[in-house]
Amino acid sequence: EVQLVESGGGLVKPGGSLRLSCAASGFTFANAWMSWVRQAPGKGLEWIGRIKSETDGGTTDFAAPGKGRFTISRDDSKNTLDLYMNSLKTEDTAVYFCSTELDLELGIGDYWGQGTLVTVSS
Amino acid sequence: SYVLTQPPSVSVAPGQTARISCGGNNIGDVNVNWYQQRPGQAPLLVIYYDNDRPSGIPERFSGSNSGNTATLTISRVEAGDEADYYCQVSDSNTDHRVFGGGTKLTVL
């Protein structure tokens, strides 16, 4: 059974930092491109960024809201994905999901965790 | 950046057909995925690559994509289909994943 389990969410003050983690199981994590997607309360889905597989260079890419403030890393030996968030703003308040990116050739399905809530407030 | 436009809401009676549009510049040139999200749950892929269904998704769900509009069609709508639906593409310029604003499907 595929599982993605996020952790690390919580309350943080504006300007603060937070590290979110995602533990993966049930698929070949090392082959997967992994994304973080967030959803502000009552709002739609917003892609934050991704990290490619090490086979494809292990590079990261970010959408505008996280560029320069967020970092993504992966540990294929532990099947874990991390999102480091710095200089947090109130508008970063959201549920943060980790997800795989569909890759039929490699047999990677589209999987999502249940999300972890980050609240940025003074 | 690439923008996807969805109607905020669509309403349909049980047993009827729901159509949810997703507009984008030359969206017909890229693959479109559709997600269903029920309250408090993670998104669930219901259509990928314009019109393919993942295992376990009913045949009632189908998609089309041409020109500047992609469409998710749900036939014989059931109460359990009530959810938010999001289209998603990869921006061909940046390779970023882009989501539409979402459409709330209400089953009357």
Secondary structure layout plus pairing:
The complex is a heterodimer of chains A (122) and B (108).
Chain A: E1 3-7, E2 10-12, E3 18-25, E4 34-39, E5 45-51, E6 60-62, E7 70-75, E8 80-85, E9 94-100, E10 116-120
Parallel strand pairs in A: 2-10
Antiparallel strand pairs in A: 1-3, 3-8, 4-5, 4-9, 5-6, 7-8, 9-10
Chain B: E1 9-12, E2 18-23, E3 33-37, E4 44-47, E5 61-66, E6 69-74, E7 83-90, E8 97-99, E9 103-107
Parallel strand pairs in B: 1-9
Antiparallel strand pairs in B: 2-6, 3-4, 3-7, 5-6, 7-8, 7-9
What this model shows, in words?
- The complex is a heterodimer of chains A (122) and B (108).
- The relative contact order of chain A is 0.32.
- Helices cover 0% and strands 46% of the residues of chain A.
- Chain A has no helices and ten strands.
- In chain A, the strands form two sheets. Chain A has a six-stranded mixed beta sheet with strand order 2-10-9-4-5-6, with no helix packed on it. A four-stranded antiparallel beta sheet of chain A has the order 1-3-8-7, with no helix packed on it.
- Chain B is mainly β.
- In chain B, strands 1, 3, 4, 7, 8 and 9 form a six-stranded mixed beta sheet that branches. A three-stranded antiparallel beta sheet of chain B has the order 2-6-5, with no helix packed on it.
- In chain B, strand 5 (61-66) and strand 6 form a beta hairpin.
- The termini of chain B are far apart.
- The chains are: A mainly beta (122), B mainly beta (108).
